[in-house]
Specification:
This protein has ten helices and eleven strands. It is of the alpha+beta class and 325 residues long. The chain folds into two domains: 11-147, PurM-like, N-terminal domain (60s Ribosomal Protein L30, Chain: A); 162-314, Alpha-Beta Complex (Phosphoribosyl-aminoimidazole Synthetase, Chain A, domain 2). The strands form two sheets. Strands 6-8-5-9-7-10-11 form a seven-stranded mixed β-sheet. A hairpin with a 3-residue loop joins strand 10 (304-309) and strand 11 (313-314).
């Protein structure tokens, strides 16, 4: 982060200038003038809440554009709501900022949020700002609504179910590598890392269809392991079916499936469905959600996640995905 000497306004002046306008259309936000917001689910709906923290140097780079950082912080939370089948409605924002962050950075950050609020039809409802001697830390708590009893959980996968994933896998990890190594080109991969696309339409389309779902944040294999553990099943993934983009193959080569399947930050939806819904879920994804999905494996009795090649031979995977601890 480039250091600046310009003065920042007080916390309340900062909120009034940059963040109150993001909340003006949300009645429950009370103009960001109170200690809390009021949120009432529509009749027949339940409230779904999720939160994620992004830390400079861990989830984004110091010289990433401020607007892109803001969008990523919001979108990774919207991705969680999408995987639960929820309709996103709003969010809370907590910012911890070092003194090196100036008003130019903050205005660009707020502009990124404003653009995504219009894109995803969500509104700011409150939050907190504080100073820190450490790196920038951004915590967003997003919320949405889902028809009562229709949230898609991690624990519903059953033997005989089929495993699907949206989009392509490994792009964000490849994009991050291209940025860190200052590799020219690969704009698509870099964008996939910097500004992921939460699959909101697909998530809603999967209500009543998917038996289990989550978004791919730490890596396809690592995240599917959560479904396997909570559901008490084994998930077998066919390595040849994992969808890889041409851009990824151009950077990493054709023999990169293990690397792609253990890369994080894709924010695609991985989900399971009963085998008798195979055709229907493909039709719904293509029509109602305009999203590509790929059948990549199956759920069987047992435990854990395995990656298989020809003749059901298991590929050793030393690191299934990103871990913080």
């Amino acid at each position: 982060m480039t250091s600046f000497n310009s003065e920042r306004p007080s916390e309340f002046a900062l909120i009034a200038e940059l963040f109150a306008p993001l909340a003006k259309s949300a009645p429950g936000a009370l103009g960001l003038t109170d200690d809390a917001a009021l949120i009432a689910p529509p009749p027949g709906y339940e409230l779904v809440i999720t939160t994620d923290t992004l830390v400079e140097g861990v989830h984004f780079l110091a010289d990433d554009p401020a607007a892109s950082i803001a969008k990523k912080a919001l979108r990774v939370n919207l991705s969680d709501l999408a995987a639960k089948g929820a309709e996103a409605a709003g969010y809370l924002l907590a910012l911890s900022l070092p003194r090196t962050v100036d008003m130019n950075w903050l205005r660009a950050f707020a502009k990124g949020l404003s653009e995504d609020q219009r894109l995803f039809d969500v509104l700011l409802h409150g939050g907190d700002t504080t100073s820190t001697p450490g790196p920038i830390s951004i915590t967003i708590t997003a919320f949405g609504f889902v028809p009562q009893g229709m949230m898609i959980r991690r624990g519903g996968a059953k033997p005989g179910n089929l495993v699907f994933v949206s989009g392509t896998i490994g792009d964000a990890g490849a994009g991050l590598e291209a940025i860190k190594t200052k590799t020219e080109g690969h704009a698509y991969l870099k964008e996939r890392y910097g500004e992921p696309s939460p699959r909101m339409k697909l998530g809603r389309a999967l209500r009543g269809m998917a038996s289990a779902a989550l978004d791919v944040s730490d890596g396809l294999l690592a995240d599917l392991a959560h479904i396997a553990e909570i559901s008490g099943v084994r998930i077998e993934i066919d390595a040849s079916r994992i969808p890889l983009s041409q851009e990824l193959r151009a950077l990493w080569g054709d023999d990169c499936v293990v690397r792609a399947a253990s890369s994080g930050d894709d924010y695609e939806i991985a989900f399971t469905v009963p085998d008798n819904r195979q055709g229907l879920v493909k039709e719904i994804a293509k029509g109602r959600a305009s999203t590509s999905i790929t059948e990549i494996g199956r759920v069987v009795a047992g435990q854990g996640v395995v990656l298989l090649v020809e003749n059901a031979r298991e590929i050793p995977v030393l690191r299934a995905g990103y871990t913080h601890f």
